[in-house]
Structure formats: structure tokens, C-alpha cells
Write a structure and sequence with these properties.
The chain is α+β, with helices and mostly antiparallel strands. The chain has 11 helices and 8 strands. The strands form 2 sheets. A 4-stranded mixed beta sheet has the order 1-4-5-8, covered by helices on one side. It is globular and about 70 Å long.
Length: 389
Amino acid sequence: MDFGFTPEQQAFRQEIRDFLAKEIPPDWCGRHFTWINEEEWRQARAFDRKLAARGWLTLAWPKEYGGQGRSHIEQLIFLEEMGYHHAPNGGGWSHGPVFVGPTIMHYGSLEQKRRFLPPISRGEEIWCQGFSEPDAGSDLASLQTRAVRDGDEYVLSGEKHFVGQGHRSEWCIVAARTDPHAPKHRGLSMFLLHMRTPGVTVNPMHTLPRYGAQWQILLDNARVPASHLVGEENRGFYQMMSTMDFERNRIDHAAETARVIDDLAAYAGTRGLSANAVLRHKLAEMAVEARVAILLNYRIAWQLNAGKIPNYEASIAKLVTERARQRAAALGMEVLGLHSQLAIGDSRSPDGGKLSDLYLAMVSVTIVGGTSEIQRNVIAQRGLGLPRG
């Protein structure tokens, strides 16, 4: 079996690297897109537009929807390089292209595909995800937000929590209960909600990183056209599972972890820390762990290229990738010592404060997108065929 890339794919990787070396602003903070401030957001959106002009946001999408019809392997290469180089992200190469667009492609109507996919491919419309609720985080089947049919519309009422970029998004893919009497897995539906719809209120949720990263969406009789129902009514739970599988492709996160370890190794070398055998072994162990995470995400790209939707394989990749990110950030705090506590923008920080920012962000990564416990359940039941406990 050949685990290498073709000459054409290697040339494409080099093209991306050359572009990033030229186009990433020299003062870019490297912060994750859900934590960037307004000035950083403007930088990131300008960068998104440059990516869109090259057609890179949706490389593997069909051409009729604004994609380039290229392979999922090439899209993986793109995302891997974005993650490794801490590229700016104004939402253009994350939610919309990674999981909202593929969900619409698989389940949406022809009208929805024509309306929503081209703007995503051009980076014009930013999306967020309205799944989690106060009493339904990991257990999405317990969602209580209601959607009641009223003629040609659905009336949505409820509350969504921990919505990344909720305040900056034009659209939200939202799940709601359309049949309160059906078994909880079978009474949910998915909708495409415009965030400026009357009855939609967005409030900040001040989580550990001080940047106001997560948002609350309140739905008070917000009306959604029936044409914005995704797929079949009351089949939303099963569609959500596919959306989550798309979201759990974490190649950019795995590549970011590899970069963190590479930077730590370089720092240790310049400070004479590499003479410490214990530290060398820790760095080597984390380098291997990051590589394993990258390879597991390669497997997902291979499945997508074969026309499959990854299931338990996506859970394996997410579980390993996010654990590696947490461990890499913790090791970085150990290597930098007290300097690791300096915030972004502090001139005394040896890395510009990126590590402290990363460490704070890593608190939530084994929760968002499905907790590690949920991933283990998926792996056990769908991957190994084990019974429910």
C-alpha cells in the first residue's frame, strides 16, 4: 500500500505553502477563529476572500455548487496546511464548507443546494450550529426546542447554548423537536435559520477564554419557511449524526498539534533544554501522538473520497486528536514555565502568548462536537458492535 501523496498532490501542497508564506499577515495572532476580536475578524475575513478567489474553500465540492470537483485528499491537504500554519479563519473554511454544506448536499432539496451552497463556496455567508441546549449537550436526542408547523412556516421556540460565532453568523443550522409524542430520537428535524429573523436573540456566554467565545441563541416564536426544512420531517436526529461525523474531521487540529510540538522542540533547542532526556522523550512521544492523529484523519479523507460518510472512524479521529491537543498544550506550559502564562500580545512571551491562549481553549475541546465519553460509546457500539450498557 502506498501511503505517500502523488506528485500532483505534493505540488499542490507546496502551492498552498507558498501562498501562506506570502498572504498570512505578519502581525497575525494565530488565535482560533472563535476567540478572535473584531480587528482580527476583519483580517481573517479578508484572508477568507483570498482563499475563495482561488476556489480553495470548497475544493472537493461539485463544480455546479461552486466547488472545484477535486478530491477529498486535496481538500485534506489544504486543511492540514491551514492548521499547521495557524492560518486566519473568519469562518470561511470551517463550519460552512466542512459540515453545513455537506449536510445540505446529502439531505437538502435542490432549491436549498442552489441557494445556500454557492455563497458558502465564495465565503460570503458564515454559518453557526444550533444543536446543544442547557439540558441536551451530549444527549442531542433530548432536545427541547420546539418547531410547530403553521401553514408554510415553522415556528421555533427554545434556547441553544455554546454556539461558536453565533454573533457573526448570517445563518444557523438548527435542530428542533417537531413531534413531541414520538420517541425522542424520531421527533426531531433540522432547519436553516437566518440569524436576523425576528424572534432570534444572540447573547454572549462568558466561558473560560476571556474573549467571549461562545454564544446563546434564544428563539421566541421565530418563523422559518417550510422550504428551509432539511430533508424529511422527524428524521433530523439521523441527519444530525451525519453532520457531527463531518464536523469530527479534525485534520486542521491534528496539524496544529504537530506544529505546537515542532515549535516546542525548536524552542527547547535554542534554550539548551534538549539536553534533558526526560523532555526529549516527552516531545518525541507527543510528536508520535500528533502523527497518529494526522493519519487517522487521513483515513476519513480516504473514506470521503470513496463516497462514504465516516462514522465511528470520525469518533476515533476526534478522540485521539483532541486528547493530543490537550496534552501538547499542557506540555507547552511545562516547557515554557512561568512565561507560558503570558497572554497574547505580551512582548515578554517567547511565543507571543499563543500557548496560553491555546491552553485555555483546550479545556473545552473534549466536550464540543460530542464529548469524549460519547465518542467512546460510538466506537464501542458502531465500531466494535458492543451492546448498550
